[in-house]
Recover the amino acids of this structure.
Protein backbone atom coordinates (compact mmCIF):
# COMPACT_ATOMS: atom_id res chain seq x y z
CA UNK A 1 0.00 0.00 0.00
CA UNK A 2 1.22 3.52 -0.79
CA UNK A 3 1.61 6.46 1.55
CA UNK A 4 -1.46 7.32 3.58
CA UNK A 5 -2.38 9.54 6.49
CA UNK A 6 -4.51 6.73 7.94
CA UNK A 7 -2.96 4.68 10.73
CA UNK A 8 -2.71 0.92 10.38
CA UNK A 9 -5.15 0.50 13.27
CA UNK A 10 -7.71 2.83 11.69
CA UNK A 11 -7.42 1.01 8.38
CA UNK A 12 -8.02 -2.33 10.11
CA UNK A 13 -11.18 -0.96 11.73
CA UNK A 14 -12.38 0.38 8.37
CA UNK A 15 -11.70 -2.93 6.60
CA UNK A 16 -13.57 -4.74 9.36
CA UNK A 17 -16.57 -2.46 8.92
CA UNK A 18 -16.57 -3.03 5.16
CA UNK A 19 -16.42 -6.80 5.68
CA UNK A 20 -19.52 -6.63 7.89
CA UNK A 21 -21.40 -4.37 5.48
CA UNK A 22 -24.15 -5.99 3.40
CA UNK A 23 -23.43 -6.10 -0.35
CA UNK A 24 -26.19 -3.61 -1.19
CA UNK A 25 -24.67 -1.06 1.18
CA UNK A 26 -21.23 -1.54 -0.39
CA UNK A 27 -22.74 -1.07 -3.83
CA UNK A 28 -24.56 2.08 -2.68
CA UNK A 29 -21.22 3.50 -1.48
CA UNK A 30 -19.66 2.80 -4.89
CA UNK A 31 -22.56 4.55 -6.66
CA UNK A 32 -22.36 7.49 -4.27
CA UNK A 33 -18.61 7.86 -4.84
CA UNK A 34 -19.12 7.70 -8.62
CA UNK A 35 -21.83 10.38 -8.44
CA UNK A 36 -19.60 12.62 -6.32
CA UNK A 37 -16.76 12.24 -8.82
CA UNK A 38 -19.11 13.17 -11.66
CA UNK A 39 -20.38 16.24 -9.78
CA UNK A 40 -16.81 17.38 -9.05
CA UNK A 41 -15.74 16.88 -12.67
CA UNK A 42 -18.78 18.77 -13.95
CA UNK A 43 -18.14 21.59 -11.48
CA UNK A 44 -14.63 21.90 -12.89
CA UNK A 45 -16.00 22.05 -16.44
CA UNK A 46 -18.52 24.74 -15.40
CA UNK A 47 -15.72 26.70 -13.75
CA UNK A 48 -13.65 26.65 -16.95
CA UNK A 49 -16.68 27.36 -19.19
CA UNK A 50 -19.09 29.62 -17.25
CA UNK A 51 -20.97 30.49 -20.45
CA UNK A 52 -21.91 26.86 -21.22
CA UNK A 53 -25.39 25.50 -20.55
CA UNK A 54 -25.98 22.24 -18.64
CA UNK A 55 -26.25 20.19 -21.84
CA UNK A 56 -22.85 21.41 -23.00
CA UNK A 57 -21.33 20.70 -19.59
CA UNK A 58 -22.81 17.19 -19.53
CA UNK A 59 -21.63 16.43 -23.07
CA UNK A 60 -18.11 17.55 -22.21
CA UNK A 61 -18.12 15.39 -19.09
CA UNK A 62 -19.43 12.40 -21.09
CA UNK A 63 -16.79 12.94 -23.76
CA UNK A 64 -14.03 12.95 -21.16
CA UNK A 65 -15.55 10.01 -19.32
CA UNK A 66 -16.11 7.79 -22.36
CA UNK A 67 -13.30 9.02 -24.56
CA UNK A 68 -13.97 10.80 -27.84
CA UNK A 69 -14.26 7.70 -30.02
CA UNK A 70 -16.91 5.97 -27.89
CA UNK A 71 -18.66 9.27 -27.21
CA UNK A 72 -19.03 9.91 -30.95
CA UNK A 73 -20.35 6.38 -31.53
CA UNK A 74 -22.91 6.69 -28.75
CA UNK A 75 -23.98 10.33 -28.98
CA UNK A 76 -22.72 11.55 -32.35
CA UNK A 77 -21.11 14.85 -33.16
CA UNK A 78 -24.10 17.04 -32.38
CA UNK A 79 -23.72 20.79 -32.16
CA UNK A 80 -23.60 21.92 -28.51
CA UNK A 81 -24.71 25.45 -29.22
Amino acid sequence: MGKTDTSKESMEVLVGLYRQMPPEQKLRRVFDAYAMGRRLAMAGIRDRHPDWNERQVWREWAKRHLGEELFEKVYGAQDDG
